[in-house]
Amino acid sequence: MLWHGEVAVRLTEVEAYGGARDPASHAFRGPTARNAVMFGPPGHLYCYFSYGMHWAANVVCGPDGTASGVLLRAGEVVAGLDLARSRRGRSSDRDLARGPGRLAQALGLGADQRGADLLAGGPLRLEVAPPPAHVSVGPRVGVSVAAEVAWRFWETGSPYVSGYKRSPRAPAI
DNA sequence: CACTAGATGCTCT
DNA sequence: GAGCATCTAGTGA
Fold first, then answer.
1. pLDDT attached to residue A112
2. Is nucleic acid strand B under 7 Å from A92's C-beta?
3. How high is the pLDDT of residue A173?
4. Residues A41 and A64: beta-carbon distance below 8 Å
5. Domain coordinates of chain A in residue numbers?
6. Cα separation, A123 vs A125, whole angstroms
7. The whole model's pTM is what?
8. Which of A8, A23, A62, A127 lies 20 to 30 Å from A43 when distance is taken between CA atoms?
9. What are phi and psi for residue A44, nearest 5 degrees?
10. What residue has its CA nearest to the C1' of B2?
11. Distance A87 CA to C10 C1' (A)
12. pLDDT beneath 70: ranges in chain A
């Protein structure tokens, strides 16, 4: 469960990214100004801009010095619905945080939150919640390399996962 | 409802 | 100067 101010999102879909060992990771080619956060201590927010219009939120999970992170791909807005709605504009409640870009927008994440500490007790904080009863595993989406690595996890049957274009059904692996 | 195509700007080479 | 861990709008069934 990720909180930002009064808006809370229950995560329903995530993707794991290794560091130097993962060709699909931004950290594969070494640290840069953008991904430096991933090399830092865990529990920090790695926020980056992509496709010219969307932010994607990651949580650093490896120890200090090891690049690794988890991309928050989708979630369900469970608090601060009005605020999230106003940020997302006209959109059905189900689409408020379905997709990385939408998730970041609904939470109001951006350049200001880059590298923020999620465990410091500020307005932006990560809360541990019980895992969903059923979790599916599959290949990552939108990754051009190492797509065969099944490092994507989502809540089985949840309408809040992206699923995205092709394969609306959960590929059973 | 399902699918296709186009837009968009920051970041690294 | 090209690449992107994507979204939205618009068209067709």
1. 85
2. no
3. 32
4. yes
5. 2-155
6. 6
7. 0.89
8. A23
9. -100, 160
10. A165
11. 24
12. 90, 142-147, 163-173
